[in-house]
Amino acid sequence: MLFAGCDWSDQWLDVAVLDRSGAVLGETRIVYAECPDPVARYQEFLAPLGRRWRATVTGIEDVHILFARSLAALGMEVVHVDPTRAARHRAAFGIPKTDRADARLIASMTLAGEGRPLVENSPEAQALRIVAYAHRAAVDNRVEALHALRAALMRIWPAAISAWPASVGGLRSPQARAVLAAAPGPRAAARLDRKSLAALVAAAGRKRTVEDEAERLRMIFSRPVMLLDPRVEDAEAIHIRHLLVALDQAVQRADTLQRELEQHYAAHPFHQVVSRVPGIGTVLGAYLLGEIGDRPVERFGSGRSLAAYAGVAPVTWASGQTVRVAFRRASSTHLRSTLHAVAFSMVGHSPGARTYYRRRRSVGDAHATALRKLGRKILLCLYHCMASGMPYEDAIAFGYDPAAGGTSSLRRPRPLDEGQIERARDMLATPGVTVTATARAFGVSTQTIYRHVLGRSWAR
User: Burial, 334: exposed, middle or buried (Cβ in 10 Å; 0-12, 13-18, 19+)?
Assistant: First the structure.
């Protein structure tokens, strides 16, 4: 058997091959510009060195580059050599920092068994991971474009920022983007009549209470506001239109990738396991499986290793009689943030998760600490289900009886009781009292007043 070390760079690969005794059998440099297929060139280099050259173990510091992934796809064994450990070996033995010396060092570490085997997920799991990362990037771009638009409106027209509530999507909603594209400044918006606004809102997809929404916007746009010079306002309007185009593209890209994400999520082998968890929807489930993959037993070996990889297991430092427990920072930030969102969502959907969270808070844990511990418990349960093939059962995971009275009830208390509703109606019957003032008096939102006091549905 041969043991090879590969030191990669943006322009070439340096390869050194050792036998079982540690003797150097050959060294070469594969230049990308001179070789269209580095993998084929690598195999041609290995063929004369031994009869069982196909069983060569290749060590490399970055297993995510195309060369390493292509080798693994061809069935050759690839191991990951920790760059930090390689640097320590280099410093301890006084090895010079050259590409050729690094290749020999990696080959010797591979021979000594200091590399971790590369465990590739199935093509379905790899595809889900790629689409999940693309969707994350698209969501980040959408948020960035939305913040840029909000900042531009704050400089010229602050009233437009609060014209569309968060319940309908705020400035990201199709209605807001359609109206702002037609009237990107306060003067242009004040010239829009009710009929024009109704046409814009209807074209954006609104089907109910179109006239009421148009009248609400007309009342907002007709209020006196601070104005700039018309020429300056026109220049700001040009800037806002370009930002709206960027926001439209970001929203369209995120929506398209979410549809692709749903298809790849449904094709994942562990889709049925994660989809049974209350509080985990399509996006969170796809993010979770994109990081875990479909071979967690081969990749991590145990649930504790997976929890350490996710950053939800603490690090214990012990020296003599001193023991210190610290937060684990060397972890997958994507999986850690996903578990935080999963735990937060499960608190509102799972009776067991809610009880567990409240118990952790009652003993003094902070909000983030309680969610991190809840995320660790969820991750360990999912690992057990994936390793054993058992379906996820929330009652078994958190040890509660779903048939017990009141345990599985997820109904939220009404924001206003009957007496408060009657007092709110009396306040609204008083001339000059608005819905906003009534909502502030009772400490609730205006939508609560519309829904529970006036009996109106949410404005959409």
Answer: middle
The Cα 222–Cα 191 span in angstroms is 8
Nearest to 44 by CA among 57, 54, 58, 32: 54
Percent of the chain clearing pLDDT 70 (strictly above): 97
Question: Contact, 307 vs 332, CB < 8 A?
Answer: no
pLDDT value for 413: 63
Residue 410 pLDDT exceeds 90: no
440 pLDDT band, cuts 50/70/90, is confident
Summarize pLDDT for 368-377 with one digit per residue, the tens. 999 999 999 9
Residue of 226, 217, 230, 234 whose CA lies nearest to 158: 226
**Which of 157-171, 335-349, 389-403 holds the top average pLDDT?**
335-349
Secondary structure of the chain: what % helix, strand, coil (to 5)?
60, 10, 30
DSSP for residue 330: S
> CA dist 46 to 4, 27, 100, 111, 124, Å?
9, 10, 17, 16, 31
Q: Token pair of 317, please?
A: 């430092």
DSSP 118: P
C-beta atoms surrounding 322 within 10 Å: 7
Residue type, 224: P
**Between 435-442 and 418-429, two packed helices, what is the crossing angle to 10 degrees?**
150
State both tokens at 295.
């071979």
- Give the span between the Cα atoms of 66 and 60, in whole angstroms: 12
pLDDT of res. 411:
47
